[in-house]
Amino acid sequence: MDILVFEDDELDTLYSVINKLQLIFHPYICPNGELDFHKIMELQSSDKDIIILVDNNLASPICEIARNGYLKNKDRMYKMAALILWAQFIGAKLSCGFSLFETDSQKLSCYTAESSRLQFLHAVDNIPAHIWKALAFGNIDHVPSQYLSSDYKTDERNFEYNEGVLYLSTEAAIIKIVELLRKESVTAIEKFVEFTNWYADNLMIAESILFYAAAVFANVPNVAMPKKCKSSDFSEVIKGIKNQAWDLTYIVTWSTVYSNETIDKCYMFATDDITQKVIIVNTIPPGECLKALYSIFTTKKEIEMLNILFESKFGKSRILPMKELNDDEKVKNIKAVISEECALLQKMIQE
Fold first, then answer.
1. CA distance linking residue 31 with residue 258, whole number of Å
2. Domain count of the fold of the chain
3. Are residues 209 and 308 in the same domain?
């Protein structure tokens, strides 16, 4: 059994680095990505299973380290090592499930999702903790070859997630956001009101998507628009929409998981994407999203428009779309919405 030993101020240094990187999030333990030492110690001493859901911008380099033993970007390599070391120290299980769906669905890797899964598991389960510690602290610059993964699967395994209600709903919302971003003469608050009316009427609401829409309409710093969203090439616009939909699907899915946490489980989320970080810190814990929206739209007129919007669409006035439908029926409905909005967007681009 590999035992972690920290000497002198090494543990303090690890906590300091993890806090500075702001990689790990949880609505109550670390809502802004900074760890509360006492809460972490309390969690560590509990009987809870701690699961950290890792998105693709972290899972992919971890797989690369498992295959090759290093990353060309040394700072990024030390960052991955620090994440794994911290997870092992608190007894957390790193999970890359979501990133496999994204990788397979978008063909983001020359490796099959099954190979990536095995490489990731090898990295977090089979490379000894003392190796990750040495790598994180810069005492070595690569994982020794005897610890590298040799699991390369060429067989196909279905990791498709594109038919899921959450992903499809997110993709539909991003398409609408892109339509509105291309309307140059419309103000940010007008775009947000139009989007929210449409969103509330057609889909289940996710606070992270509401905040993202407001942030990109208002050009909030460090919140990126979907890639190529103003391109004249429709296929490039759609590619950017799907990419952004995945980033938001991570957060939406995680929010459904942590909101249903049981007494014996704790679900954290890990990302190194700046836009995702801004969305998370402005939408957790519950109630933060509303504060964030009022901090984006601050004029008297904008606040009045928000008040009218929320009164008419949310609370007791909220009429849930697709409430009586099963998942298959919801998927069919959302696909129809996507088809309609894609046609509108393509028409806008061609004009």
1. 12
2. 2
3. yes
Q: Which domain holds residue 41?
A: 10-147
Going by C-alpha positions, the residue among 96, 110, 112, 99 that lies closest to residue 155 is 112
Predicted local distance difference test score (pLDDT) of residue 164? 85
For the entire predicted model, the pTM comes to 0.91
Q: Which residues contact residue 293 at a Cβ distance below 8 angstroms, ignoring those fewer than 6 apart?
A: 210, 211, 214, 306
293 and 221 together in one domain: yes
CB 112 within 8 A of CB 51: no
Choosing from 147, 182, 206, the residue where a domain stops is 147
pLDDT for 17: 94
Q: Are residues 77 and 181 in the same domain?
A: no
Q: For 132, how many CA atoms within 13 A lie in the half-sphere containing its CB?
A: 27
Q: How far is CA 327 from the centre of its chain?
A: 23
Q: Could you tell me how many residues make up the chain?
A: 351
- Clarify whether residues 135 and 207 are in a common domain: no
Whether 233 and 112 share a structural domain: no
Residue 255 buriedness (CB in 10 A; 0-12 / 13-18 / 19+):
buried
Same domain, 131 and 169: no
Mapped onto helix, strand or coil, the DSSP state of residue 30 is strand
pLDDT of the residue at 47: 84
**Which residues does 271 contact at the CB level (< 8 Å), separation at least 6?**
23, 25, 54, 55, 57, 58, 250, 277, 280
**What DSSP string describes 128-179?**
-HHHHHHHHTTS-SS--GGGS------S------TTSHHHHHHHHHHHHHHH
Same-domain status, 19 and 84: yes
Flag whether 124 is in a domain.
Answer: yes
For the record, the structure tokens of 91 come out as 């007894």
The mean pLDDT values, 10 residues at a time, for the chain of 351 residues are: 82 93 92 88 88 92 95 96 95 82 53 79 94 96 93 53 82 98 96 97 94 98 96 96 93 86 88 96 88 96 95 80 89 96 96 81
